[in-house]
Amino acid sequence: MKNNSSIRLGGVLSYITVFINIAVTFFYTPWMIRQLGMSDYGLYSLVISFISYFILDFGLSGTVTRFIAKYRAEGNQEKIENVMGLTLKVFWAIDAVILLVLASIYPFLSNIFIGLTPEEVDKLQILYSIAGLFSVLSFIFKPMHGAMMAYEMFVETKVIDMAQKVGTVLFIVIALSLGWGVYSLVFINGLIGFISSCACYYVFKRKSCVNINLRYYEKREMKSLLSYSMWIFLISIAQRFRLTFMPSLLGILSNSTQISIFSLGMSIEGMVYVLASALNGLFLPRVSKLLYDGNRKEVTLLMVKVGRIQLYIISLLLFGFLILGQSFLKLWVGDGFENTYYVVLMLTATNIISLPQHVASDVVAAENKVRYTASYTFIASALALVLSIVLAPKYGALGCAFSFCIAMSLNLIQINLFYRRRLKIDIGYFFRECHIKVLPIIILISLPFYILCRFMSIHSWILFIIIGALYTIVYCSVLYFCSLNTFERQLVQQLFSIIHKK
Questions:
Q1: Residues 165 and 246 in one domain
Q2: Closest by alpha carbon to 404, among 298, 262, 286?
Q3: Are residues 190 and 257 in the same domain?
Q4: Which of 249, 253, 230 is nearest to 241 (CA)?
Q5: CA-CA distance, 154 to 16, in Å (whole number)?
Q6: Is 0.85 surpassed by the pTM of this model?
Q7: Domain span at residue 160?
Q8: Which of 6, 113, 212, 315 matches a 20 to 30 Å C-alpha distance to 280?
Q9: Which residues contact 264 (CB under 8 A, 6 or more apart)?
Q10: Longest Cα separation, the chain
Q11: How far is CA 250 from CA 48, 403, 408, in A?
């Protein structure tokens, strides 16, 4: 019961954190740009994105979660302490390499970023030093986040994440209001990130009572650890590559306008993904336990239970954008981005199938079959790239988005066949209980609003918010009475009860 309430509260905190991130994107970022000026904001964005290419954990954070969850299910405390020791030593070795790489790049920053003025290069070098130092210091604590998830410390993890985001924004607002400039921005970001990493380490050590065995080394287990993490790393690289490479491709085959159209669509898709996947990772420990007990039927039932909840959220976002997306883009960024509406729809279309199936991806992790999904991801990424090269010269951003949609659709077919044949998940039952029972009701709710907005000009934020709120109220009310089962209604009632008490 304690685990259920922890998952539930962790999920609520995940969505609060996501909404904070969205609020920051829409309100805080424009203010920060005005305070810094375009040049300093560009330098800040440049140094953060450039260093992020080097601060990769090579899939080891996800590996820690998987291995510890497995050993917890088996009740093997010694294995947990050993694998934590192995992982920390690997992270320290990687951290040393990152430090050497960042230090060796420093003298050549002016040669790399030749478009910057001498004054901007001087600023960049200082910003690079500050961000690089804190990144290296924080990196050694990266395994703690995965370990906390494996120990089902969902509430603690989300509270630390939320405190980091709110604290960063709060102190940056104070610093910029006092005129401290871009250096303070990077310093505060780095310092609070480092404090958050230390907090994760402290909380994990105190609550788990795990004595990390740094003296342990076993070649076969190290090989297993690195083998699994490498597949996770390759998946993340392939997933990042297939979308983030598109703007560069458009720069080669099309023009800057198409880059802007696609990049804005990619940003919105990223926000939708983060909001819809807030529950990801919360169920891996439970899945590992069910699989260890041989209870595969319960895994399918859990997949349906979680999938229906995620489908409600994802559908509200996607159908809401289908209805109001064109008006939103016109109000938010003005004219010239009409095709971004279609880009977003194509980039997010497959999410309505893939995101509710996250429990199945936990099964993949728990059973160490990541190499199969990695292969499918690489095939999809390659197909998206080839199709984009063909379509981008003529169709620009729309061609790239269509290529992505086709590749991801074929990837979904492969993945679902894999779930059914290799993992023995009853995918037919999942779709019957999840999509077939829920989507027709959502379509019937959304259709009148879609028709209304096609014949109505939404020219103000007030009217946009009124229609959006009305759609959300109707959506939630109809689903509550016509679609939610007993468990889902109890979940809603418990949530409102908690809010009422607070």
A1: no
A2: 262
A3: no
A4: 249
A5: 13
A6: no
A7: 1-213
A8: 212
A9: 329, 333, 337, 340, 343
A10: 70
A11: 23, 13, 19
